[in-house]
UniProtKB/TrEMBL annotation:
HNH nuclease domain sequence ranges: 71-124
Pfam family, one: HNH_5
Keywords: Endonuclease, Hydrolase, Nuclease
CDD domains hit by this protein: HNHc
The name this protein goes by in its record: 5-methylcytosine-specific restriction endonuclease McrA
Lineage of the organism: Bacteria, Pseudomonadati, Bdellovibrionota, Oligoflexia, Oligoflexales
MF terms in GO: endonuclease activity
Length: 169
C-alpha cells in the first residue's frame, strides 16, 4: 500500500510507504486525510492504513518540480499508460515489460528517452535489434514527463484527479 503526501497547501508532493505515512502522523508532522479500507496492526494497536496525508508545515518543492519525474520502471509504465508502445495492447503491472529503443548492447541506457512500456510478444519480436532492423514503429516518441504530468499520474493512482480538477489525456 502506498500513501499520497500532500503539502500543507494540499499540493501533492510525494508517494510514500504506509509505514512512513503512519510515522509522520504519529509524530504529528502530518494529518490523515483519507485511509485505505485495510487496517494495520502493531503488537498493541490497530491503525487505518493512510491513503492520503497532509503535512502540517509547508515544504518548498520548487527545486524537485523543475527536475521532472524521477525515472523508474513503474513511472515508465505510468507515462505510457500501461499500453504497449508497439501494438497498443493494454497491459497491467505483471504483464508489462520495459523495452530499450536502442538496445543496451548497442549503448542504449535506462533513460526516459530510451525506454518504453512493451508487451512480452513485441519485446521478444524486437529483441536485440534497433527499430529499423526489427521493422517496428513506436506509437509515441518516449520522453521525460513533466513534473505536472507526473503529479497527475500520482493523483490518478489515488483516484484524486477529479478532486483537484486535473484533466489527463
Amino acid at each position: 500500500m502506498r500513501t499520497l503526501v500532500l503539502n500543507a497547501s494540499y499540493e501533492p508532493i510525494d508517494v510514500v510507504t504506509w509505514q512512513r505515512a503512519i510515522t509522520l502522523v504519529m509524530k504529528e508532522k502530518a494529518e490523515m486525510i483519507s485511509s485505505h479500507v485495510t487496517k494495520v496492526r502493531s503488537v498493541s494497536r490497530s491503525f487505518s492504513a493512510p491513503k492520503v496525508i497532509r503535512l502540517k508545515r509547508y515544504i518548498s518543492v520548487i527545486k524537485s518540480l523543475h527536475q521532472g519525474a524521477p525515472y523508474s520502471r513503474i513511472n515508465v509504465f505510468k507515462r505510457d499508460r500501461f499500453q504497449c508502445q508497439y501494438c497498443a495492447k493494454q497491459l497491467n503491472a505483471k504483464s508489462a515489460t520495459i523495452d530499450h529503443v536502442v538496445p543496451q548492447s548497442k549503448g542504449g541506457g535506462d533513460t526516459w528517452e530510451n525506454t518504453v512500456c512493451c508487451c512480452e510478444q513485441c519485446n521478444r519480436k524486437k529483441g536485440n535489434h534497433t527499430l529499423d532492423q526489427a521493422k517496428m514503429v513506436l506509437i509515441a516518441k518516449p520522453k521525460r514527463p513533466s513534473a505536472f504530468t507526473y503529479i497527475l499520474n500520482q493523483l490518478e493512482e489515488f483516484g484524486l484527479n477529479e478532486l483537484f480538477g486535473a484533466a489527463h489525456s
